[in-house]
Design a protein that fits this description.
single chain; alpha+beta; Sufe protein. Chain: A; three-stranded antiparallel beta sheet; 5 helices; about 35% helix; binds FE2/S2 (inorganic) cluster; iron ion binding; NIF system FeS cluster assembly NifU N-terminal domain-containing protein; NIF_FeS_clus_asmbl_NifU_N; iron-sulfur cluster binding
């Protein structure tokens, strides 16, 4: 009888588990060609801004969103990070995910999980899973900032 492999979602470590890492072509593409980066927010009119940091590695992420007031969908998502390759790739993919096909509703975006980003990237090395959380945390901060601003208008 064949033994079933216990593969985790998004785990692309393979046979070198714990010793070496393998990035997928999608991860590399988003690292070398990150989408929706905002280097200077001075003239960027946003509806919500979020900043998140990872106390373990010291990496930090800033993210801005624009929301369509009629549909409550995210129509633009920009970000900038002092972070690692995985954080860059994951946040680049996240920015695509929340704006594609007319944008995702803000309430729905609050329920996004890191696994969904990892799946779209075709996997991440297990030790880098936490890097996919950085952009998501910043997005949730930005949405909460937007909702708070909306209440006070
Ligand atoms: S090592 Fe800090 S986010 Fe990746």
């Amino acid at each position: 009888m064949k033994k079933k492999k216990n593969k985790k979602i998004g785990d692309v470590i393979g046979k070198n588990k714990g010793k070496s890492w393998l990035y997928t072509g999608i991860v590399k593409d988003h690292f070398f060609h990150p989408r929706n980066v905002l280097l200077d927010e001075t003239n960027y009119q946003y509806d919500g801004k979020g900043i998140a940091g990872n106390p373990l590695c010291g990496d930090i992420m800033a993210l801005w969103i624009k929301v369509d007031p009629k549909t409550q969908k995210i129509k633009d998502c920009k970000w900038r990070t002092y972070g690692c390759a995985s954080a860059i790739s994951a946040t680049s993919m996240l920015s695509v995910m929340v704006t594609e096909k007319g944008g995702i509703a803000v309430k729905k975006a609050l329920n996004l999980k890191p696994q969904q980003i990892i799946e779209r990237l075709g996997g991440l090395p297990e030790l880098k899973f936490h890097c996919s959380v950085l952009g998501l945390d910043a997005l949730k901060e930005a949405i909460n900032d937007y909702l708070k601003n909306k209440e006070t208008k």
